[in-house]
Amino acid sequence: MSDMEKKSSAANVEVGSAADVDEVLKKYDRESNTRIWEGKPKLVIRWLMVFFSLYSIYVTLFSTAMRQIRLMNFLGMILVIGYLNFPAKKGTQKVNHMPWYDILIMAVGAFGFFYASIHGAELANLRPKFIRGDMFLLVIACLSILAMMELCRRSVGVPILIVVGILLVYTFVTVDPTKVIYDQFYATSGIMNTPIDVCAKYIVVFLIFGAFLERTGISTFFIDLANSIAGATAGGPAKVAVISSGLCGMVSGSSVGNTVTTGSVTIPMMKKTGYQSEFAGAVEAAASTGGQIMPPIMGAAAFLMAEYMGVSYAEVAYRALLPAILYFVGIYIAVHLEAKKLGLKGIPKDQLPKFSVLIRKIYLLFPLVLLVVLVSTNTRSMQFSASVAIVATILVGLFNKDDRITFTKIIDALESGAKGTISVAVACAMAGIVAGCVTSTGLASKMITAIVSVANGHAMIALVLTMLCCIVLGMGVPTTATYCIMAATCAPILVSPEIGIPVISAHFFVFYFGIVADITPPVALAAYAGSAIAKSSPMKTAFTATRLAIAGFIVPYICALSPAMLLIDAGPAEVVMIVITSLIGIFGVAAGLSGFVYKKMNPLMRALIVVGGITLLIPGTMTDVIGFVMVGGVILLQRLGAKKQAAA
Hints:
mainly alpha, 75% helix, 0% strand
């Protein structure tokens, strides 16, 4: 019996088994559909992945090689481990089987990257006209790009590939084909563009750090900590899911992975308490998705944001703090009101872990605290800070006698970090091609002209169109890829003089909507993972998760139209007022969508409190006054009505 099934039996509720979850993820999530290796082949591939992680850490810390050499080696190794992990088709895989055509594609594609690395210095100094007659260089470049695109189809999905394919065709038609091949493969304006450079320098080390942190038992610590804080309150298990999933998601950076990890514990608890299956799965999915916007780690895309905006990573984390708090407060309020509406109780205190006992394990947070201090103070580079944090994680893990880190866990972490890098690196490579096509064809200016003409100077119309692009592209596509493409295509439109959105606000806007795509129907991977555990309808779970995470759909607009929400040009007094009004505003929106504060609301009351909540979220004295009156008025009427109802 699996761990998940044991938890299900203990809770005496029906939840999905590990096999159910695996089946759903293999159907919808490309990253979950991998080859099955056993015996010696598994051992060889395992150590190959470990070597890749160690090599990546070494290169990012000590290598002085030129960019082309470093990135071509990185891409070549990604191609090799990628094909060793991802098969051509979904579904059940044969054990220790890799067809000859996969071996051929892997070998030919990797050869092009490694050849370009070996001859990097001389190839970097060439120009398109010098390789025009060199068919060998043209062919290996095309084959390597096609091999990487095929790996993208396997590990990331088709949507991003469609975007890349259309742009490549358009570029080949409008630009000299030889120049296109040169720019996309041998220059740093294509596949070696900013995204893959950031991935090789920063993201891979932070992914490995996250894998190490998970093996210290920090997820169990977060769940126990959340239980001790909120477990005994009304509907406690749902609040535990919100707190623990936010903390664990901050570390893992994967909404789907975190839903499966913490959901196996929290979803049965929620169902046992009395929450409906769809609600239980949705709470976990919405909270796990929000982990990617929670500082200090914020998933891989935050590093790219810092690079694109030309600011420090610490500033990105600082700007993201208030929106992240509002997101989780919104979900927390929604589950609290749902518990009150259903009359649900919490977990008996004698069944909860003692807070005093948990304090003894507070040292597990030391690597995270160390990382935050090193990064925020700019003491050393980000990759050095992450490497120091990895060492600290190993040392801390040695003191955790309940879940002590071992040599096997260290190898597991290095292997897991390498595997997690594959899809992110492939997505970054594709995003580089998109950026290269947009730049070489001048498509960015044409898109700006087109969108501006449609929007007719109205920022709201441009924001809505951008939101739709983010959600559609983000369906089944990693957040990193979605952000990179939107940063190259839509963010320049938003910051154009005609639209006038500040640079930081524009990038946060596309970042947030790329993330909430994980819970937005029709392809909501995190919600589907939650529904598999909760044994609920996937589509109903996705719609419920969207309702719970409503702050994730409102706050980005506020950030774009009023940068003070991102603490830009805001003094201390203004920041305090923004925090207070925003929290009350989120309460109003959550209450209206829930339809309950002290008693059930009629449609008019629900509409009034939602509108009042939204006006409070918009910084400004007039909107704050209107919002206070509307939200306060509805709450007062609810209170009086509940008293009359009780007296009757």
